[in-house]
Description:
The complex is a heterodimer of chains A (367) and B (257). With 367 residues, chain A is mostly helical. Chain A has 16 helices and 6 strands. In chain A, β2 and β3 (174-175) form a beta hairpin. The model of chain A has no long low-confidence stretch (mean pLDDT 88). Chain B has 257 residues and is an alpha/beta fold. Chain B has 2 domains: 1-83 and 174-257, Rossmann fold; 92-170, no CATH class. In chain B, 39% of the residues lie in helices and 24% in strands. Chain B has helices at 46-54, 76-81, 99-106, 115-120, 123-143, 158-170, 188-203, 216-222, 240-245, 247-254, and strands at residues 6-17, 20-31, 35-39, 61-66, 69-70, 84-86, 176-180, 208-212, 225-230, 233-238. In chain B, the strands form 2 sheets. A 6-stranded mixed beta sheet of chain B has the order 6-7-8-3-9-10, with helices on both faces. Chain B has a 4-stranded antiparallel beta sheet with strand order 2-1-4-5, covered by helices on one side. In chain B, β7 (176-180), α7 (188-203) and β8 (208-212) form a beta-alpha-beta unit. In chain B, α3 (99-106) crosses α5 (123-143). At the A-B interface, α9, α10, α11 and α12 of A face α2, α3, α4 and α5 of B.
Amino acid sequence: xxxxxxxxxxxxxxxxxxxxxxxxxxxxxxxxxxxxxxxxxxxxxxxxxxxxxxxxxxxxxxxxxxxxxxxxxxxxxxxxxxxxxxxxxxxxxxxxxxxxxxxxxxxxxxxxxxxxxxxxxxxxxxxxxxxxxxxxxxxxxxxxxxxxxxxxxxxxxxxxxxxxxxxxxxxxxxxxxxxxxxxxxxxxxxxxxxxxxxxxxxxxxxxxxxxxxxxxxxxxxxxxxxxxxxxxxxxxxxxxxxxxxxxxxxxxxxxxxxxxxxxxxxxxxxxxxxxxxxxxxxxxxxxxxxxxxxxxxxxxxxxxxxxxxxxxxxxxxxxxxxxxxxxxxxxxxxxxxxxxxxxxxxxxxxxxxxxxxxxxxxxxxxx
Amino acid sequence: xxxxxxxxxxxxxxxxxxxxxxxxxxxxxxxxxxxxxxxxxxxxxxxxxxxxxxxxxxxxxxxxxxxxxxxxxxxxxxxxxxxxxxxxxxxxxxxxxxxxxxxxxxxxxxxxxxxxxxxxxxxxxxxxxxxxxxxxxxxxxxxxxxxxxxxxxxxxxxxxxxxxxxxxxxxxxxxxxxxxxxxxxxxxxxxxxxxxxxxxxxxxxxxxxxxxxxxxxxxxxxxxxxxxxxxxxxxxxxxxxxxxxxxxxxxxxxxxx
Lengths: 367, 257
């Protein structure tokens, strides 16, 4: 006999990540497809998928601090930058103008996260005294301070307009920059990055889910919804806002440390205000405060240029003198979607998914 | 009954907001295991008293000692962790969460692990979460709100929301419970329910209860001691039956010409 899906008979199954068999089956299926993806997709689409996974990690970070704990952070891109430069310094090659230690990924990956988290902890006291828009303005200042440092610390970043090479992909002594072959299987550099991103995305995604189902996530939501009540219940606001900033920047740092290896270099101009705002847009489009939302949002954001290209080609206007180029169309469409989601579906893509699922659960009955 | 000691004592507490004096030289002691009621007309400073105990307001002059610690040196969350929990006059539940999650947040101080363990959902986390859930389930059982466990707060009626807020405060397993108008806006039947719960909390769980309410019948029936406030001043302290006969109290409630 089939069980009722929402009837829990013990604590363990109720608090599980995948509470039903259907969810488990879908997860395994999705995992299987993800593992095979590099063998079926072209390089261009693989790059987009990899970028999506890494952007998703960074967006989870922003979702922790802004979506779960309700502290507006407009400077998330700066933390991604801190991760990128930490990895570039520890794992990158030294030249006449920049320093680099060419260490293994096993060092630079956790250290990039830790350094970003540390900076997050350092700026978190700001949030202890400020709320809402005021906090947003202060984090805005951090974007500009960050840009200034990124442009002027030339021995780390290479300076504005020039940039430097990203970290070398070396894992446990294996040099993966030129790809790796296991028997007949040849994995290129980008495939290796894809698998690393996939693993990190799954692990950090589970981490984000774990936060929501434990005390830390509950305390974050309490602070977001009613901070005075949260304090009266014994939640130390200062401490938990610090946790939120630290975890958020840790996610950003991890994402940043890998994401620039794909293109091979980092340039300080990347980490502008627009870059930080992008993450906010992704979280809003995906679904604020949900676990899967940022993942959907990241894929949506990263895939959009690819999809627009395909559509333009199909319409035959890609190369002809259309008055807008692909990049401009992409920005317009993206802006339109932000407005659309804020007005019509504040719960984002996750909200659409939630309603679709509930509709088909009861299908063909409407209740 | 156990030895009567003071859990909270006010010494000459005054509280000013600019020119407004919310409390004027208020002094009284709250004994352990009492069911202490604070009554008075609107604007008398009753909620200010609770906010002072709670640490949300700090007294302008005078001092409040909570378990023999000075409240001025403590943050609201530290006071809460001493075992002081409260409900609010206007419901302050976390509306986007289920009743169960709200009560689990109440059990926050009994759950002990850091964010890194939480990321990994380690064994310790699982054990502590189980403990929190056990505490919450006890509270749910005690307040008879089993059917609302998974309901979102916004979908619940006012009376039930009040009861869930009481549950959230109880999940702290407090030593002292501050109730700010638990029966406000309730009909007679619901008021009786709440009164029964308050008596149970006081007698079965042995929690010191500090209660603010306008429902005189309920206060006179259940309180062991009562303080009457008017315009920030203490008018009367003592037995509820005596309060009803005190001329100053009658004047404050009925008004004098």
